[in-house]
Write a structure and sequence with these properties.
By secondary structure, the protein is an alpha+beta fold. The chain is built from 3 helices and 8 strands; from the N terminus they run ββααββββββα. It has one domain: Alpha-D-Glucose-1,6-Bisphosphate, Chain A, domain 4. Strands 1, 2, 3, 4, 5, 6, 7 and 8 form an 8-stranded antiparallel sheet that branches. A hairpin with a 5-residue loop joins strand 4 and strand 5. The longest helix has 22 residues. It is globular and about 45 Å long. This is SRPBCC family protein. InterPro entries: START-like_dom_sf. It comes from Euzebyella saccharophila.
């Protein structure tokens, strides 16, 4: 399953956006209002839960300075990744797109597509406000 957000203009340079996203505690600022739990486990992992949903642990998988950050599920039960691609527009602005890639059976994909699309949209929208 592949979900991509429209590009979001962020009023910060690519280096600043990259540094914001590599500091995992900043993801709490991007989360939806219905967040139930957020905890940084270590410099490469954080846990979050939305009301009525199970806890998810995300782990930094890879990063390319000032252009890309890839987070993935720490559990192999639900293999997926969340990628932020950062494109510099000017020294004071960047364009960020988020993409979700997951391997789910058809039934699971049908159940989670809408909540994940909404979640990704919220992250993207809040990223534009940093």
């Amino acid at each position: 399953m592949h979900i991509e957000t429209p590009n979001t203009i962020v009023p910060k340079g690519d280096k600043e956006v990259f540094e914001f996203l590599t500091d995992l505690k900043n993801f709490e600022k991007l989360m939806p209002e219905n967040i139930d739990k957020f905890q940084v486990i270590n410099e490469d992992r954080f846990l979050f839960a939305l009301k009525g949903m199970p806890e998810i642990v995300l782990q930094r998988k890879q990063q390319t300075p000032n252009s890309q950050i890839v987070l993935g599920a720490a559990s192999e039960k639900l293999p997926f990744s969340l990628t932020a691609n950062i494109i510099s527009i000017t020294d004071e602005s960047s364009e960020v797109s988020l993409s979700f890639e997951g391997e789910f059976n058809a039934m699971m994909a049908m159940m989670i597509k809408k909540p994940i699309t909404n979640f990704m949209g919220t992250l993207s929208e809040n990223l534009g406000k940093i």
